[in-house]
Write a structure and sequence with these properties.
Two copies of one chain form a homodimer. Chain A is α/β, with parallel strands linked by helices. In chain A, the strands form two sheets. In chain A, strands 4-3-1-2-9 form a five-stranded parallel β-sheet, with helices on both faces. Chains A and B meet through helix 8 and helix 9 of A and helix 8 and helix 9 of B.
């Protein structure tokens, strides 16, 4: 099976990493809209317009499935993308919600959703979790964590003070935290430590693997996956980051 | 005189503020490319392409002059923009360099240039200052300060630890600091305090007023300036920010 992975930038490589670890695909074609990243501060119409342009891009390739790794796209543009595609389009929100249910079935669990401004505003995770009976939810738009990850500050004072800025008012550690942005897995350790290891972290990449394995037939696994990386600007930069993150 | 002001987002409002304070123009037409902000992390070709699209936008209006408030655009796209325009196009880099010379004529002065990754990489300020004999220069790409300003964190722990992250290795306060990004004047107080008031700060808005008054005839001043705000997305948000920043 061939899969396309669409992201607003480089963050979706954290999803590619999970796909590779499970040897699910023969070929992965990645497109990052690096010329227009970040999507998380843009409005709904713009997010939908850019996402439909990505659909056009993937028409250049034979793919069986498209994964939108970006939480913001998944929260806003999935219906429109499905209408324009001949194949399945899967976002990361529903898989994240299901992964949470598998990890913590208790509907009284105290769940914290982290995301960009747009993702939090969409209420996509909240709606999904509510429909499964979860009611003890809070959400924080932790937008600054995106450029902090892009600057490579995975530890240190800037990250710590930003975590304190966002989480300082919480009186106790959440039972689970949804990392609702593909950048956040890169600082998962710091977030976990901040809450003294008391919170279960839900990661889009692992969630989507769980979802794919439940919904598709992966009897055949691939030792080697062909990888193709494209970007709307500076594709060399994306390939360099991919090499580093994916240890290619 | 009617002027167009182009910026990658809302930051250029700090330049509009200076223009208004000096009553230079009859009409100011502002265009912020909010759908594609920030430019400071993009590559040269993309910055030029987007800047030329802005030139097309301003062809809808009768303007006598175009100011590119964005330092990144000023550093990369000015020549191309001038070729496509029927009127003058002024960036903020040359005015900033001249304002520095007026403030601190000593060529041995220790000067720190702050900007986005793209602006620092362009070396535009360094070249300009070198040509005037300044040689004691350093530059730091302080990109994280942009989203910090956009989140409204003009003071507090996140800002302080980020300033420390960027400036912690400096052994003494610079004689002058060029605020080479339109967002930075909003945290000028914090930067000034960080260096205990020992550094002279150069602000693009004030620099451009100084430059305009030296190069154009402003015998007539305007008590009231007509303001028009446009944005490639969420123009209401831009107008709201303008009201707040410009105290309209």
């Amino acid at each position: 099976m061939r899969v396309g992975v669409f992201d607003s930038g480089v963050g979706g490589l954290s999803v590619v990493k999970s796909l590779l670890e499970h040897h699910l695909f023969e070929e992965i074609i990645y497109f990052g809209d690096t010329a227009r990243v970040p999507y998380g501060v843009k409005d709904q119409n713009t997010i939908i317009r850019y996402s439909l342009e990505a659909i056009e891009f993937f028409k250049n390739f034979e793919i069986d499935l498209l994964i939108t790794a970006c939480n913001t796209v998944s929260a806003y543009a999935l219906d429109e993308m499905r209408l324009q595609s001949d194949h399945d389009v899967i976002g990361v929100v529903d898989p994240g919600v299901l992964a949470l249910k598998n990890a913590i079935p208790d509907p009284d669990a105290n769940i914290l959703i982290l995301g960009t401004k747009a993702t939090v505003k969409s209420g996509a995770y909240t709606k999904g979790l509510n429909s499964l009976g979860y009611h003890n939810l809070s959400a924080i738009a932790t937008g600054l964590l995106v450029p902090i990850v892009e600057e490579g500050l995975y530890e240190g004072e800037v990250l710590q003070s930003t975590l304190h800025h966002y989480f300082g008012n919480l009186t106790k550690a959440p039972d689970a935290i949804i990392l609702g942005c593909t950048h956040f897995p890169l600082i998962a350790n710091a977030i976990e430590s901040y809450f003294e290891g008391k919170s279960t972290l839900i990661h889009s990449g692992e969630a989507i693997v769980e979802y794919l394995e439940a919904h598709y037939d992966f009897t055949k696994r691939f030792e080697k996956t062909e990888l193709k990386f494209f970007a709307s600007e500076n594709p060399e930069g994306l390939r360099r980051t991919a090499k580093e993150w994916l240890q290619l």
